User: Fold this.
Amino acid sequence: MRFIGEVSFSSDASLRKIVFTGVCPILASGCFTDLPEDAVICVPDDQPEVYQTALTGTGCTAVTVTVDNSGFDEGDFEFDAATGTITKYNAYAAYLSIPDPIGGVP
Assistant:
């Protein structure tokens, strides 16, 4: 995954935790707006500064973790493989794991 599109995960009142793996994607303006105040974004432990910079202004907290990607379901996303962009989130999970790559696409 290279990019998370504008408002892709915005206003999801149930989303509490997002887990990233791999290289930090580009985060569009507003992709995490209006999430619950206690929402947490977990990032790989080898690049917390990169993710923290990318997450600046999103309203979420970056946390250094060792990633467990076992809860990922590709049906939760609309993903444009040609651009490597998540364009929409289709579920209401409290915990979300975003792997890199998705379906073999970085």
The mean pLDDT is 78. The radius of gyration is 12 Å.
